[in-house]
Amino acid sequence: MRNIIIAIDGYSSCGKSTLARDLASALRFGYVDSGAMYRAVTLYFLNHSIDYDDRAAVIEALRHIRIEFRNINHQNRTFLNGQDVEDDIRDMRVSSAVSPVAAIPEVRRALVQQQKALGQTGGIVMDGRDIGTVVFPDAELKIFLTADPDERVRRRQLELTAKGLELTEESVRENLLERDRIDSTRADSPLRQADDAIVIDNTLLNRQEQLELALQLAHETMKQPA
Ligand code: CDP
Asked: The whole model's pTM is what?
């Protein structure tokens, strides 16, 4: 069996991270949440009042940002300069600012470089917006996940409520649609389906069903000769 790279892309809140995590755990692969990296940079920019339009300030700030993932109590958590920021990067303050930050070419260049390095040895599942198109254009398996927008809003709201964050359905919907709009229209590596990606619409699939479908694709791919 080959140590392949699995790229999962798609719109906000369609379950990419859940599928990527489940797949990585079933295959004993590494998992990288590329969105968490954009969120961590955004948190740093917000905390340090970095002006996104100031190119020099952005480049300088990027030099001071170190992002790592650590496994704590079987949970993949994001660390920014040695601090656990996993909870902070999921809040609405970061969600509202992340897409403009992720559209900055210098930010993308820095993070894509780190993402490529993380995938060097294969045996990895990475989810995001440009993984199958830019980060790993040669990934052996590319999945483009989609789901009905109403279902995506419902899932994101459940996720936020579980974390004790009470937000109106309208504000969650606005944030998802606005991020989708910015992510798919930005000039630098916009969100789009790679030509060789396999589309999975998971609107009517539960977590186990989507995992089984993806695992089947992964096993078929791993059996193929390199
Ligand atoms: O969890 P959700 O799907 O809502 O978003 P995420 O995966 O945490 O990503 C947050 C934001 O980071 C996205 O809306 C994009 O603006 C940006 N992103 C990106 O530009 N490229 C990636 N590979 C991953 C995320």
From this structure: 0.95
Check pocket membership of 142 for ligand 1, CB cut-off 6 A. no
**Which atom of ligand 1 is nearest to 16's Cα?**
3
Residue 56 Cα, ligand 1 centroid: separation in angstroms?
24
Q: Are β-strands 75-80 and 141-146 bridged in parallel, bridged antiparallel, or unpaired?
A: unpaired
Cβ–Cβ < 8 Å for 29, 42 = no
Q: In 84-168, where does DSSP find H-type helix? A: 92-102, 105-118, 149-162
Distance 35 CA to ligand 1 centre (A): 4
* Closest by Cα among 85, 41, 87 to 64: 41
**Residue recorded with tokens 């991020």:** 179
Within the chain, which residues score under 70 in pLDDT? 1
Q: Judge if the beta carbon of residue 129 lies within 6 A of ligand 1.
A: yes
Q: How far apart are CA 128 and CA 188, in angstroms?
A: 14
Domain spans, the chain: 5-219
pLDDT digits (tens, 9 = 90+) for 72-122: 998 899 999 999 999 999 999 999 999 999 999 999 999 999 999 999 999
Retrieve residue 42's tokens: 């955004």
Q: Is 111 in the pocket of ligand 1 (CB under 6 A)?
A: no
Tell me the sheet residues that pair with 124: 5, 30
**38 alpha carbon – ligand 1 mean position (Å):** 7
Query: Measuring from atom 9 of ligand 1, which residue has the nearest CA?
Result: 35
Tokens of 77: 């958590």
Instruction: Given CATH 3.40.50.300, say whether it is the number of domain 5-219.
Output: yes
